[in-house]
Specification:
Layout lengths: L1 H31 L1 H8 L6 E2 L2 E6 L10 H11 L3 E5 H8 L26 H21 L3 H12 L3 E6 L10 H14 L3 E5 L4 H14 L2 E5 L10 H6 L3 E6 H7 L5 H11 L3 E6 L1 E2 L8 E2 L8 H11 L5 E3 L11 H17 L1
Parallel strand pairs: 2-3, 2-11, 3-4, 4-5, 5-6, 6-7, 7-8, 8-11
Antiparallel strand pairs: 1-2, 9-10
Helix pairs in contact: 1-2, 3-13, 4-6, 5-7, 6-7, 7-8
């Protein structure tokens, strides 16, 4: 009986030691690689396809209520795992006294539905100027704690922020303290760049480039139909932290010397200075420049995405939803359609 008892006790001891060792090993592995451990518990969106990061600018959801929490849900619903974050919702989350702008109505009315008034460009600019004046003092003294919290909230949902677009804090009228704020906020959010419109006064791009160098944050300049192959040359020469936020749709809509071939050549030539792209489908100048559902315009979407995949360029391809949203749809559904369109190209 004593031998049988000893054998049972030895087997139990061995079983206990084995289970304890495996548990300890699991803790070690979890400690060394939290990303792997977390992936076993949570699977967030993944819009990185064949090495190409498909993202979206949160401006795409401007027709819908736009708090940071709501934007997070929109991205999850659309399957987007990386974003360019607009300044307004980030500042509202961080405690800006001006709050959020109301949604802008870009959806055409359904049959028998009365048209909703849209804010004109002049009205929009006036409203922004008034808001900026109120927000300026807050920006100059804002804590970065809420921006860190915002980054954590998105990251825990599986979404990274690669660019921040606080246009209001990066204008020619902005104070040095505001520009410092924008750069610090970008870093707190985890973004490698701030995006802003390409200025006509190149003294301002020199100024922003100096702040970029100071904070080690890239300044991605965005152009509309003034885009040419040389439009960014001065800014790029002024600072190693001046860069390009290339809008492929606007480039094609500009027409003239801008063609599918020159666009692809421009991307190849300047790929190391392009921090992110905006992807949309626009008609060329000769065809009317209209923003179209993907696949119906003249932007060479397949060629652009294939180039990024083939060359392994680490340039986020940012969905910017600008075509009219159908009456039976919304911005989330349309953004998801754009993502699925890009995914099919990359996986084809």
């Amino acid at each position: 009986m004593s031998n049988r008892k000893n054998k049972i006790e030895n087997n139990s001891r061995r079983k206990f030691l084995y289970q304890s060792s495996m548990a300890s090993l699991g803790l070690v592995l979890m400690g060394k690689n939290k990303l792997v451990a977390n992936s076993l518990l949570y699977s967030g969106p993944n819009s990185k396809i064949k090495g190409v990061q498909i993202g979206c600018i949160t401006y795409s959801f401007r027709s819908m209520p736009g708090s940071a929490e709501q934007l997070l849900q929109y991205c999850k619903d659309a399957g987007i795992s990386a974003i360019e974050l607009m300044g307004d919702p980030a500042e509202a989350f961080a405690g800006s006294p001006v709050g959020l702008m109301p949604p802008m109505n870009f959806r055409p009315p359904a049959a028998n539905e009365p048209a909703k008034p849209r804010m004109s460009g002049e009205e929009f600019m006036k409203a922004m100027e008034e808001r900026n004046a109120k927000a300026r003092a807050w920006r100059e003294t804002a804590s970065m704690d809420k921006f860190v919290e915002l980054r954590k909230m998105f990251n825990e949902a599986g979404i990274t922020i690669y660019a921040f677009k606080p246009d209001a804090a990066l204008g020619e009228k902005s104070t040095d303290a505001e520009i410092d704020y924008a750069m610090k906020a970008a870093k707190a959010l985890g973004a490698s760049s701030v995006n802003v419109e390409l200025p006509t006064n190149m003294a301002h791009s020199k100024r922003l480039g100096e702040f970029g160098l100071k904070h080690k944050v890239y300044v991605g300049y965005h152009a509309h139909t003034q885009a040419t192959d040389t439009a960014w040359d001065t800014a790029l020469s002024q600072s190693p932290y001046n860069a390009i936020n290339l809008d492929c749709g606007h480039y094609i809509a500009a027409g003239g010397a801008n063609t599918k071939e020159t666009l692809l050549a421009f991307i190849e030539t300047k790929h190391d200075r392009i921090t992110s792209m905006h992807i949309k489908d626009r008609k060329s100048k000769t065809n009317g420049t209209t923003n179209m559902p993907w696949g119906q315009g003249d932007t060479p979407l397949k060629e652009i995405l294939t180039l990024l995949k083939t060359k392994k360029y680490k340039i986020p391809a940012t969905i910017e939803l600008e075509y009219d949203i159908p009456a039976d749809s919304d911005a989330v559904q349309e953004t998801k359609k754009c993502f699925e369109f890009a995914k099919a190209i990359l996986e084809g």
